Structures are given as structure tokens and as C-alpha cells.
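Cross-posted from the bioinformatics board.
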Amino acid sequence: MDYQMIHTCIRVMDLEKSEKFYQQAFGFTISRKKDFPEYKFTLSYMSAPGSPFELELTYNYDQQQPYELGNGYSHLAVGVKDLEGSHTRHQELGLNPKPLKGLAGGAPKFYFVEDPDGYLVEVVRV
Amino acid sequence: MDYQMIHTCIRVMDLEKSEKFYQQAFGFTISRKKDFPEYKFTLSYMSAPGSPFELELTYNYDQQQPYELGNGYSHLAVGVKDLEGSHTRHQELGLNPKPLKGLAGGAPKFYFVEDPDGYLVEVVRV
């Protein structure tokens, strides 16, 4: 039986703000968006051009408090060729990316940036 | 600047148990695995055959308590053609899949199954 990973889903407090963040930071576009008033939620699916994998954003009408992010889920990773250029661009956009890092004393290979709800996105050199 | 989603990362309590779950339930294989004793963690990357997107499992040596999953992160979704066959197979494997569901009175289109740490995986008909 053939399985493929097709999306990852996070709950967000402000759908438009999150959509704008992922569009601005990573060039993702909204591939599908559907409102389910009977369940009191809206689903927005975003993806990178040419890639089938989607980020699903769930907006629950009645959520009042910020979501508890816990310490289990870690991050979504996004690959880019020009890591330093991306870091500079994210700084210029005012997204406060964390410093460039490498593991075990190696050359810089990644950095993290927080989305509007505080979820970490790892930007990785590919 | 061109960005692609490349992996999603969760922290797990028992790496071999999680690897076995994702292998058995979804046919994912370990594409890379690396131990970082200096940081006291091991990273295991799993993927579906033929797909570049990976699930990163992080095992922290010193984690004593189960991770707090919170209510922000929702799930990873996995697509399969034969949804009913997959549901039966997951039942037979003793994975206790939740009932098949459709939204808004529609035909069954998905179900959820929990991984060993309690993270939800949505199995979606594609």
C-alpha cells in the first residue's frame, strides 16, 4: 500500500496574518481555502510553487487564547539555496530571524524564524 | 528566492518505537540517521519511497517526561488511494485507527491514527 506525506497542519490565531507571513517569508501561495461554518473553522492550504506538499492552516472561530505550543512538535523546515541571502532578506522584512548556525562546529547550514503564532520554521541550505 | 518545504520535525520518547510505527503503518524508510552526542540528541529522517519530503524524529537523551503536545500543532497528513483498505490494515496491525470520517455529511475521506507519542496522523484518500 502506497502512502505519501501530503500536508502538515497547525492551528493559528489570525489566518490572514499567517497567510501573509508564509507568503512573504517563503513565497508560498494559497492553493485551496475552505470555510466550514457548521464546524466553526476555516482551512487554508499553502504550498511552494511546483511542490505538492502543503501547509494546512486551521483557523477555529472560537479560539480565544493563544494556542499552547508545548514541547513535542518542533518545526517545519524549508530549504533554500542562498541561505545567507535569505537570512538578510528575512532581517530586512523585520521577521527577526535567529542567527545562522551550523552543527558541531561546521559552516552555517540553517537558522530559525518564528511565525506569528510562535511556531518555528527552520530555513536550511539545500 | 526559491523555497521548498523539506521536512517536519517532532520530538519522540523512544526512537526505535517511532521508527517502527512509521515504517509499519506507512511504509516510510529511514533515509538518514545521525547521532550528536555533543548535543545529546539523535536525529532520524524518514520518508516515503520516491518522495523528497521527510519526517524528522528527534530523540533527546535526557528527556524524562512525555512531551507536552499542546493544542497548536495538529497533525501530519498521509495520502493513500485505498482508504478503507488502509483502515482495515491499521486495525489488523493493532494501531487503533479512529473511525473513517467525511466532512459535512460527505463520503468517508479520512481517519486519524495516533503514533507512539500521541501525535495524530491523518490518513486521507487521494
